[in-house]
Amino acid sequence: MTPNIDTFRFSEFGEPSVLAFKAETLGEPGRGEIQIRHLAIGVNYIDIYHRRGSAPLPLPSGIGVEGVGVITALGEGVEGFSIGARVAYVGGPPGAYATHRNLPAARALALPEELDSREVAALVFKGLTVEYLIRRCIEVKPGDTVLFHAAAGGVGSIACQWLSHIGATVIGTVSSTEKAEIARANGCHHVILYSQEDFRVRVGEITGGKGVGVVYDSVGADTFARSLDCLRPRGTLVSFGASSGPVPPLDVASLSAKGSLYVTRPSIAHYTAERGEYEAAARELFGAMQAGVVRAPAITTYPLHDARRAHEDLEARRTTGSVVLLP
């Protein structure tokens, strides 16, 4: 049976208005694919990069890389999954902003029964991002001090929880007093309002002039250069996003002058490409959720058909925590 579905597609890069909500007929899943009916869909900044063209996709394209759903059909050669089972996924061809979709079975993750679908949709992409950032890109250990920009955002909120549980000291930057309270509630030890004070100065004061071992920076243009100044000698800047715009060109020689620093620009795609790593990371995340180490930050929900408004609010920084679309 081929269901009629509602889905977003776009044929040009640009503002949220380029997203077109369409009715389509979904074909049968191909070899190695499953078909799912979405229960909840995560909205992430990578969706905005795709829509803008700063991380361009071949057009026309669907949009969205994260969701939770129920399997409704299995393609040829699929093993280990059954119709009616609930799964989550991150990655694969964009197309999550839809009532139903076909998905490579290799991206599907079986869900523990006790985990709520909305909470998983709010957490799985961001949680897997945090997992690779703090456990594999840089293994943060008890006693380490880190600086995390956008500490009240979707990724930042989860990171503050997990880092605090590990035993690290977390310094976070936020844009408002409201977001400062959110960051503190999630385990951030020192909160800096970057709109009111120079975070470089405050990091120096907090660390007694030593600097931090690692800076996690998803903001990009507005923070990158000053983030380097917050590092201790041989520290690492992890640049994993650019919400304020692309990072300007880097003079590599300056890394030596500032203390033999390291800079990396990781991608979740490279840290979850192998099925074994992907499943192991998911076990870590789902275990942390079940243990109460990581919980969903504030979840803002929008009807699926309101995805354009969700993008507008996310870009304008009117949201906190995670954004979820409901079919």
Automatic annotation (TrEMBL):
SUPFAM superfamilies: GroES-like, NAD(P)-binding Rossmann-fold domains
Name listed for the protein in its UniProt record: Quinone oxidoreductase
Highest taxon of source: Bacteria
InterPro entries to which the protein is assigned, alphabetical: ADH-like_C, ADH-like_N, ER, GroES-like_sf, NAD(P)-bd_dom_sf, QOR-like, Quin_OxRdtase/zeta-crystal_CS
PANTHER family per UniProt: QUINONE OXIDOREDUCTASE PIG3-RELATED (PTHR48106), QUINONE OXIDOREDUCTASE-RELATED (PTHR48106:SF13)
Domain Enoyl reductase (ER), first and last residues per copy: 14-325
Keyword annotations from UniProtKB, A to Z: NADP, Oxidoreductase
Claim: NADP is one of the keywords in the record: yes
SMART domains: PKS_ER (SM00829)
Native organism taxonomy: Bacteria, Pseudomonadati, Pseudomonadota, Alphaproteobacteria, Hyphomicrobiales
